Amino acid sequence: MGKLERDLRKQILTLDAKLTENTEYGSMYEIRGKLTGPNGTGLKVVTIWMMDDITYQTKFITLYPDKEA
Questions:
Q1: What are 3-51's pLDDT values in tens digits?
Q2: Torsion angle (degrees, nearest 10) of CA 19, 61, 32, 3
């Protein structure tokens, strides 16, 4: 497991997810939070996740800076 994956699991997945849309592949969720890097600098981010309708697995889709914060 890489550093980013560990940080996402520890710092982001503990926060509340918001359903954003249902697609033909699954339900899309958004989690907003602060991700702190190895140098101690924090960045507010938006992460997008999908719950696959066939496998019922949650998949990480993307991450980008939270410009609304």
A1: 999 999 999 999 999 999 999 999 999 999 999 988 999 999 999 999 9
A2: 140
Q: pTM, whole model, 2 decimals? A: 0.89
Cα gap 64→47, rounded to integer Å: 7
Sheet with 18-22, edge to edge strand ranges: 18-22, 26-36, 42-52, 58-65
DSSP structure string for the chain? --HHHHHIIIIITTSPPEEEEE-SSEEEEEEEEEEE-TTS-EEEEEEEEEEETTT--EEEEEEEE-TT-
- Answer yes or no: are the C-beta atoms of 63 and 53 closer than 8 Å: no
Residue 3 identity: K
